[in-house]
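Consider the tokenized backbone below.
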């Protein structure tokens, strides 16, 4: 298993456990699966961009991309949570 897949599997499993406690396991499966897939897609794209920027020693854009990656992760969690709990 490559590093990205291991990272996302760990993230998704942890998210599932927490979501199962909060929402019950039925909703947790959907919540964790959707967030896991979106997390993988986000990190797949941003890790390639950050690797290139790191190699170029373009520190400003490297850290901007790290911040953008985190913004996407937070927006994904917030929007999927909102969709799940809104009637």
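A designed sequence for it:
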């Amino acid at each position: 298993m490559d590093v990205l897949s291991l990272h996302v599997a760990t993230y998704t499993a942890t998210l599932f456990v927490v979501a199962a406690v909060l929402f019950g396991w039925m909703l947790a499966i959907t919540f964790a699966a959707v967030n896991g897939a979106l997390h993988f897609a986000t990190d797949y794209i941003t890790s390639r961009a950050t690797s290139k920027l790191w190699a170029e020693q373009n520190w400003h854009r490297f850290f901007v991309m790290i911040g953008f990656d985190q913004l996407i992760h937070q927006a994904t969690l917030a929007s999927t949570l909102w969709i799940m709990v809104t009637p």
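The CA atoms of residues 50 and 65 lie 7 Å apart.
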